[in-house]
Amino acid sequence: MPKHFRKGVKREHHFLKGLEKPLERIAAIPGVKKVIPGRIYASDARGFEIKVSRETKTGLKLIAKSDGSVQDVFLVVDKADRERVKREIEKMGKEW
Fold first, then answer.
1. Strand-pair partners of 69
2. What is the pLDDT of residues 15-28, one digit of tens each?
3. Taking the alpha carbons of 14, 16, 20, 26 in that order, is the dihedral positive or negative?
4. In what order do the strands lie in the sheet with 9-10?
5. Judging by DSSP bridges, how do beta strands 69-77 and 9-10 pair with one another?
6. CB neighbour burial string for 56-88, b if at least 16 within 10 angstroms, e if fewer
7. Which regions of the chain are under pLDDT 70?
8. d(Cα 86, Cα 54) in Å, to the nearest integer?
9. For 44, which of 36, 50, 68, 71 is 20 to 30 Å away at the CA?
10. How far apart are CA 21 and CA 42, in angstroms?
């Protein structure tokens, strides 16, 4: 795996507060090849939440919200595994 990846999560840039451990859990789901955190935006979001936003050409796009910020997270997932991965993330989301 390239040098900026550890436990399946790209670590070249910053994460929202509290996002690192949930992303490691998502990276451990069978079928998830890579987890790539994206841009961080200012927001009026309160609390912590991760949800699946939509499918992309290479996998899934997630939206992570944490006190005052929102971050895009991209997953590389094969087409055949996307629905199962989406259900797993939704199930995990109830624990956060």
1. 42, 66
2. 788 898 999 999 99
3. negative
4. 5-6, 9-10, 32-42, 69-77, 59-66, 49-55
5. unpaired
6. eeebbebbbbbeebbbebbbebeeebbeebbeb
7. 1-8, 10-13
8. 10
9. 36
10. 21
Show Cβ contacts of residue 12 under 8 Å, excluding neighbours closer than 6 positions.
4
Among 37, 50, 62, CA closest to 93: 50
Give the CB-side neighbour count of residue 81, counting CA atoms within 13 A. 15
Q: Quote the DSSP letter at residue 34.
A: E
Cβ pair 24, 8 in contact under 8 A: yes
Tokens coding 16:
């929202």
* Segment holding 51, helix H or strand E: strand 49-55
